[in-house]
Amino acid sequence: MTVDVPRRRALNVPRSPLWLAASLVVLFSLASVALQPTFLSPRVLQSNLSTFLPLMIIAVGQTYVILGGAIDLSLGALVSLVNVVLVTSLQALGADPSFAAIAACMGMALLVGAAGGAVNGVLVGVLRLQPIVSTFAAGIVFGGIALWIMPQAGGSMPPVYAKTYAAKLFGVKGATFMLLSLVAIIYLISRTRFYIYLLAVGSNRPAAFQSGLPVMRIRVLSYIVAGLFASVTAMVILASTSAGDPLMGQAFTLGSVSAVVLGGTALSGGAGSAIGSMLGAVLLGLINNVLFFAQLPFVYQTIVQGTIILAALAGGIMVSRR
Amino acid sequence: MAPSPSTAADAPVLEARGLAKSYGQVVALECGDLTVAGGEIHALLGSNGSGKSTLCKILAGAVKADAGELLQRGRRITLQSPSDARDAGIGTVYQETSLIPALTVAQNIQLGIEARSRLRLVDSGRSRREAVRRIEDFGSTLGIRFGPDDIVGDLAIDQQQLVEIIRVVSRRPSLVIFDEATASLDRVQVDGAFALLRRLREEGKSAILVTHRMDEIFSIADRVTVMRNGRSVGTREVRDVDPAALIDLMTGAPADAPPVSRRAQGSEQPILTVRDLSSDAFRDVSFALRRGEVLGLGGLQGQGQSELLRTIFGALKPKSGEIEMAGIPGAPATPAAAVRRGLAFASGDRKRYGTFAIRSIFENLAIARLAQSRSPLVSRARLEPRLMQSISGAKLKFGRLDDSISTLSGGNQQKVVIGRWLDTDPKVLLLDDPTKGIDIRAKRDLYEMFSVLQEKGLAIVIYSSDATELLEIADRILVINGGHVVDELKDDRKTEFELNAAALKGA
Ligand SMILES: Nc1ncnc2c1ncn2[C@@H]1O[C@H](COP(=O)(O)OP(=O)(O)OP(=O)(O)O)[C@@H](O)[C@H]1O
Ligand SMILES: [Mg+2]
């Protein structure tokens, strides 16, 4: 006995807002090439990648929280916190630390990020506080701790940290290596049960609970994952700035949310993709790039930038509504 | 005190003793007793709000009881969560489906039991194949119209219900609970679902079946437990009782006299005329609806009836054809326009088209009236008595009007969805499987309310998956099959036999 089980709409391609983000990235790349002839040279590409990478990483972290139907408004502050913790501990190692010592500091940075995420996870997942307000408040605390650890921007670092990042390993630089790892990690996460359950929780929480999914654990874990991405973001930034700044993360909070939304992930949860968020982050970077090279008077830049982002968002909505 | 093996084998599969559950002041379940034997299909019957779903949710681990105990094969068990119940072999199909709209059919079917590779990553290919096998094995008799890769949120409500049935039954629980799982299914689909239950019964497994459809109880159940006001008031062998006795037990009072036969005040002037209306879902539908008339739409589930109703209501755009209402030509462009022209629409898919889940009962009731009103201000003091008056016939069971509508039992939510229109003085009421989940008594009351309104000239177009209901209240029935009107039944051809014959013709 057979049943006609047609394989329909496996990919849902034409309606996917991911394609909009991708086409806009292409469009703005073309605009960049027109305005900046060297745009495609390896050097410029590499430097743009280094500039865009932090937002790409943090946006991926934010994606997992938003897919679960929540939001994390503390991510920027968490990046700052990890940043100052990392700088302070690396500084303490002196001028020529061992590799193991640096690795230990980075491990500690990851722990700080995971702990920050766990705090949010407990607030939202266990105590069931409203994500917007509770993560916003937690972010204020994280920022406060960062300021307490390092009241002023600065600090000097063992040069080997940044050097390693800038060096070539198997012919690729640190930033490229990070990009590839990022894609690999996104792929791995998308193949876990956690990911499917996260979509389930974001799409319909009561149904996920009734289906026997560990809703609380999933929500907590999504914040911890985001916290880990915040740590990595801080490490990458530090590799190119080589100094600590307790306020440096601020722009990442809403920046990451914008990238996620531009990348086609629904703020209501349950639908979207981390790859889309990466594209969204690239798009935000490219918009800045184009505006810079278009030599717009500075006073208009912000207005134009905001308008373009709005238009891209509206386009995404139109496409998915069809 | 471990039970000896022999008693464990004879012991009931599941026994609930004195289960109780309150939500604040509201006592949802006062004393739930239920004993389900192995290889038994056990029906659970009771008025809306009598505690059936609450009892089921406790058995499903979704709600923790305040008191009482549960025994599985004579052994005490505690269920802390739905996954505990799943591990204990209890599978539940809920009244409001617990599917994940954003995931595909296959992902939903495998949710929580995904196949994994050696690296503990989800093996999506194998998971999907597994789901397809389950769909083939259990869906072949159900009349499914979906593929494994369809997004569940895009499916019609009956198809979603079937996905959920396949998901639960294919996991081979030793006890499956159907909490009104058949309410949105048509005859053929119900027969298919019952075939699955019989198959489970032959394997020695058990089922709890919550339903308001008497015929279902008599066609499949072995025993029936009746609930009233949060208490189990009696368990009977189905072959020893008749429907009237069950209704007595349900209400604690002798059954009413059959409802007064309504007389449609049919005037000749049609209030709503539909000519050659076509869309993707239906073709060339024509009818003229007179004041006071009840027009039934029959046929199997999903033959275009819902789309037809929603097109007339302005929620969908027709491809071609004409709609004329009260002499004014032209289809309403939006539901808002339709409401202003005196149309009203209530759907049994209340989650999608009916309730504003986090808002209060009062607001859910008032919304239709407010949509019609032109005044910018709302006077609750004036509105409340009117609304309460207009739904007084429905015997709504609720705690406080300001509680969220999700605190109501399924049937009571549905009463709100219909009841909100009663005060808007509609000329034509469009009903899409409206009485789903409403108990027999309350249904009667609703029909009464309809007939009062009909005397004032209200006309009704109703689709119902429940043939008995359709035959009872419709003056004539258009049977729709594959989007075409294949027959019109009235007078002495308005019978269950003709209805089934037309519905299945060429299908
Ligand atoms: N979450 C809740 N909060 C408050 N009251 C509730 C809640 N859930 C159920 N109730 C109340 O408990 C009572 C029993 O509800 P339940 O859903 O068990 O009824 P039911 O027998 O399944 O009815 P129906 O036939 O309409 O589905 C109802 O009066 C309902 O209003
Ligand atoms: Mg119920």
List its salient traits:
heterodimer, A: 322 residues, ABC transporter involved in vitamin B12 uptake, BtuC, 13 helices, 1% strand, globular, disordered N terminus, B: 507 residues, alpha/beta, Rossmann fold, six-stranded mixed β-sheet, 18 helices, 34% helix, binds adenosine-5'-triphosphate
Number of β-strand runs of chain A: 2
Biggest protein-protein interface? A-B, 33 and 38 residues
Query: Regions of chain A with pLDDT < 50 over 5+ consecutive residues?
Result: 1-15
- CATH class term of the largest domain in chain B: Alpha Beta
Q: Give the strand order, joined by hyphens, for the main sheet of chain B.
A: 6-7-8-3-9-10
Helicity of chain B, in percent? 25-40%
Q: What is the mean predicted local confidence, pLDDT of chain B? A: 87
Instruction: Indicate the CATH topology of the largest domain in chain B.
Output: Rossmann fold
Distance between the termini of chain A: 38 Å
How many DSSP H or I helices of chain B?
18
Residue windows where pLDDT falls under 50 for at least 5 positions of chain B: 1-7
Could you give the order of strands across the largest sheet of chain A?
1-2
